[in-house]
Amino acid sequence: MPQLPPIWYLAPFGAVSALIFAYILYRNVRAQNPGNNRMVEIAGYVREGAYAYLLQQYKGIGIFFAVALAVFLFLAYSLKVLDPMIPWGFLSGGIMSGLAGFIGMNTATMASSRTAQACSESLNKGLRVAFRAGGVMGLTVVGLALIDISAWFYILNLMGYPLEKIAVVMLSFGMGASTQASLRAWAEVSIPKQQTLGQTLWAKWKPIFRKTILAIPPPSPITLVTMWAMSPAWAQTFMNLTRAPSWPQQHWG
Predict the structure, then answer these.
(1) What is the rounded CA–CA span in Å between residue 245 and residue 210?
(2) Cα–Cα distance, 210 to 188 (Å, whole number)
(3) What is the DSSP letter of 249?
(4) How confident is the model over 64-118, as pLDDT tens digits?
(5) Rounded to two decimals, what is the model's pTM?
(6) Do residues 65 and 180 make contact, with C-beta atoms less than 8 angstroms apart?
């Protein structure tokens, strides 16, 4: 097992620090005045709708991840064209992304009435509450992503994986996280529309949603290269093609 430079251990320390600060900001936002009864009532409706959205979203995403995980397990353990750790890296990335989304939605819906109440007192106070609520989501995404990547790196390093294979497995984490995030937009169209206000808004914005979804471009070259690099054999071929040539000693005089 290769020894790691001490500075590399700053990554998990930074991840834990980000999560700690996210918790501090969350407690600070939660301690703010939620407003009058009408504000609390409206915030409750917003939270109820947000959780209905998340439930519908995670149902569809869960089905997709179950199928994708089964395919990756088949490719890794039956066909042996993928590293055995790639399916689990893909799964952990999706779980971390989903957890970050839940924490962010929970914080945003909690902060809605508190931000409105703070703005009724002063603009500066309202902005502080809003920015701290947004900071919870940002720090949570960074902290969860970095702590998962750090854990994978140190576990694979302990298992004796070379650096290029570690990079391939960690790419699968990024693919799982980005896939989970990309599927969220598609889940919204299947949410039941039950209230009159919801039907009115849906009728107004439905054409825009359709145009937006249909206008989603095909996978970028970076995404295609990432998927291509998922196989260790292909990754090794790519590294061989891009490795600098080894010049003989006499070439340099």
Answers:
(1) 51
(2) 11
(3) G
(4) 889 989 999 999 999 888 889 989 988 888 889 889 989 999 999 999 899 999 9
(5) 0.69
(6) yes
